[in-house]
Amino acid sequence: RWQKIFMFPLWGKMAVFWNKIFLTIIVLLIVLFLDAVREVRKYSSVHVNEKAANVNSSAFDHIQMKLFRSQRNLYLSGFTLFLWLVLRRTITLLTQLAKEMASHAALEAQVNDATEAAKIYMAENERLHEALSGKGSGKKKESTEATEEKLKEEIEHLKAELQKTS
Question: Where are the annotated segments for Disordered (predicted)?
Answer without folding.
Answer: 129-152
